[in-house]
Hints:
This protein is α/β, with parallel strands linked by helices. The chain has helices spanning 14-29, 31-39, 66-69, 78-88, 101-113, 127-142, 159-163, 168-171, 192-196, 220-231, 283-290, 305-320, 323-344, 366-378, 403-424, and strands at 45-49, 52-55, 60-63, 120-124, 147-150, 181-184, 201-204, 234-238, 262-265, 277-281, 349-355, 358-363, 381-382, 384-385, 392-395.
Amino acid sequence: MRASVADLYGCATPADLAAETFENYRTYLNPPLARVMKLSGSPVEVYAEGCTIVDQTGKAYLDFAGGYGVFTLGHRHPRVVAAVRDQLERMALSGRTMFNPLMGRLAKRLAEITPGDLTISFFANSGTEAVEGALKLARAATKRTRIVTTEGAYHGKTIGALSASGREAFRAPFAPLLDGIVHVPFGETAQLAQVLDGAAAFIVEPIQGEGGVHVPPPGYLRAVREACDRTGALFIADEVQTGLGRCGALFACDRDGVVPDVMTLAKGLSGGVMPIGAYIARPAVWNAAYGKAPLLHTSTFGGNELACAAALAALGVLVEDDLARNAAERGNELLAAARLVQAQYPAVIAAVRGAGLLVGVELTHEGYGGAIIPELLKRGVTAAWTLNAQRVIRLEPPLIATSAQIARAMEAFAAAVGAAFEMLGTLGTDEAHGTPRTDEAHGTPRTNEAHETPRTNEAHETPRTNEAHGMPRTKKAHGTPKTGEAHGTPKTGEAHGTP
Ligand code: PMP
């Protein structure tokens, strides 16, 4: 592992690099976030490889936050890095006026590995853009406007995706959001067909990630599929976090054997080397929206050569190394280890749940998290909050994690939970599960959440809004080219009231 003066980005000492970076954050990026990160002892990342991030002092951390699901192949997988380097010598970004061979190949590869007749891709640069694209596609294809989504959902922070998300604290400052958005409980289907009547789409995460890692009952997605078929609403599966092996299957939809009409992907798509997002749609849906209007939805950077080269290499590693299987096996170890810690500290941990290498640890009281995450960091392991449920810590290591790394991280986790319990004693149970609390009373600054949503009570800088709201595959074998409608349950455009 490289960790030398060369990693200090031109600074003379680690302290200089830390001071410069903090000042830049405080002055030029995000003052309250800078303070929260500093209070929680956040170091400066200077180097990463595999499951490890190295800080400015040369200390190595097992990355169990995993970039919130980005680092499926760990940091800088050599095959992906080589593909990007190679491409950099030819062409970096698309000139946009000519055909781009890698974008074509990546779209073909995605059509081969995604379920059913998901065939036509659009490439963007992030998860939220993939979701925006999917929502627009649904409205254009169905000529309907209403979007049904789930309570607790996280689909991104651009206006459309935010409208479809579930956490009021993130939404309220930007009201009014999109009209015609309806939230229904996640995991329930009793009233779904009724709500979907006349709707353009139902957007849902196959496993709710940022909502606190909620795994729906088996058969949920099949019931969603049926309700969509009955009403002509499109089924958008947001697999930005759950897809590409994360949950122990290549796609979390595979767990129920369903084919959505549109699937969104991002985070792990390039294995953690280049930003890229995508949606992939059934041809009838795509044609209904854009068959006669190819430029209605476009992106300057989306599908650029570097991102596509990275994604093609990453998909190769993902499938050839069967990382979904490793995620399933290591995920079972991670769940079992987390449950042992829960058994040891029932006053601190209320629940442990997850699938594959997406595991959520729900605390009995939000106050513990502000101690556990820094204690974990001290012991050389990163972890993160879930963005919509502040009592849930997520453990989301790379899919290449080994049993030894899981064991080491969980040993540190047990010690960190023990230290938090020793420090804070019994805090009691927060009344409403999953409901964010505001008090910082325990003197334990919030940490990882800070990377996206600093919790500070410095109201003049970041006014707090009312927190109280707040493997069976159906079609394509991996690598098997598509042969047409014969797979799964082909849908026709008519079902959506479009040609
Ligand atoms: N959808 C889901 C399910 C996500 O988990 C996220 C990010 N956590 C997004 C969309 C948004 O992705 P991004 O941050 O890349 O915009």
